[in-house]
Fold this protein.
Amino acid sequence: MRRFAIIILDLDDVHLEEDDKNQLAKIIEESLQWWHGYFGQGDRLELDKWRVYHIEWGDELTVARVLNALGKFREYIKGEL
């Protein structure tokens, strides 16, 4: 089964458009490559193999649904995340 990393970024007060997703994906992938080069043989995370699979803008309800699916809803409600 394929594995993915799920990262939720807080974007309050940031006005984004649909086209910004591609730019963000490019920035993230370039950053991962840079860090891989910086760490060299010590790159335990193998950042050169990471790729952005999907970026989506969502509201708080969407985030709550994702966290619920991950079994983290209780921590989210308590403010522990």
Notes: The chain is about 45% helix and 0% strand. The mean pLDDT is 92. Helices lie at 20-39, 60-69, 73-78.
